[in-house]
Structure formats: structure tokens, C-alpha cells
Amino acid sequence: MRKIVLLLHTSLDGFAAGAAGEMDWIKVDEAMFDFVHELTENADTALYGRVTYQMMDAYWPNAADKPKATKHDREHSAWYNKVEKVVVSETLQPSAEKKLQVIAGDLEGNIQKLRSQPGKDILLIGSPSIVRELMELNLIDDYWLFVNPMILGSGISIFATDMARLPLELVEMKRYDNGVAALQFKAVR
Questions:
Q1: Is there a contact between 133 and 169 (Cβ–Cβ < 8 Å)?
Q2: How many domains does the chain have?
Q3: In what helix (H) or strand (E) does residue 34 lie, and over which residues does it extend?
Q4: What's the 3-state SS for 138-189?
Q5: I need a surface site. Which of 14, 82, 123, 143 has the fewest CB within 10 A?
Q6: Which CATH number fits the domain that encloses residue 32?
Q7: pLDDT digits (tens, 9 = 90+) for 124-183
Q8: Reported pTM
Q9: Beta strand pairing status for 121-125 and 43-49?
């Protein structure tokens, strides 16, 4: 069975974005990009919610072609263009050209079907509303939370307010020079 691996930046108080969707408080650096590249090399599918997918698709397909493209831009753009993208949406349409599948309706059944297909890991990137749903269904196997040294006070939470307990096991911690702590948890089932 393929693993679903979450990659998500969060504030110390559990928000993935500010109240207006702003993410200008998120810190990144080359060491983090190198680590994310390692994770993407072990994945052949990206899983997104519609909003995150549209944001990613507006940038990554051509990011490597920009005159000042960084190493990360080139690597992530290449990965983005070769992998299957699966988006949870009631409005988007699939596209063979974009390697885009769309999941609508039975989220649990569709995710279990995706996990049962042969392949590498499935990276769930951002997408806090989908993260909350998959947490409630206990379908995320590994959590990589990039905890930024910021308390937002309000915003788009990664946790549902009425969520049942979800036991996790801390597996690894990484500290970056920019103050971000990357925490890896595994689901305890």
C-alpha cells in the first residue's frame, strides 16, 4: 500500500495561512528545499485541494524557464511536470495533458483506491481543508510539519475544531538555521 506523506508549513498555533490566506510569514531556505527534494524523489503523485492545486499550477509548470530560476525552481518544476496530480474538487475537470486526476464524492474510497495502485509515495502538499478531512479519516501515514517560529492568532487551521483524537509517533526532528523546526510524525494505527 502506498503511503500518503503530508508536507505542510504551520505556525506554532496550527495555522497553514493567515486569515486572508497570506503565507508571507513562512520561512524557507536552501537546506529545506534540498530536504523537500529528497521527499519528492520518493513520490510519483501529488495530492492537492483545488485552491492549492491552482496556486501550484500557476507557478510550477514553467518555473524552471524563468531567467532567475533557482536550483529548487528547476528541480521542483521538473518533478511537478512529471508526476500525476490528484486534486480533490467538485469543479475541476481531469486533464491528460496536465497529468491531472480529479477526485469528487467518496473521498475515503477514492483515496484508498489511489493508495492501492502501484507506485511510490503520494505527497499531500499544503491543502489544509483536505488535510483536515484526511486526518479525520486517519488516511495520512507520515506528517512532515514545518513549524515556523510564528504565532498567527487566527487564520486557516490545519486542525478541525471537533476532531477526534489522532495518536501520532514522533519519528524525526530537523532544525533549520531560519528557525523552522521540521517534525516528522507517523500515524499510530
A1: no
A2: 1
A3: helix 30-41
A4: CCCCEEEEEEECCCCCCCEECCCCCCCCCCEEEEEEEECCCCCEEEEEEECC
A5: 82
A6: 3.40.430.10
A7: 999 999 999 999 999 999 999 999 999 999 999 999 888 889 999 999 999 999 999 999
A8: 0.94
A9: parallel
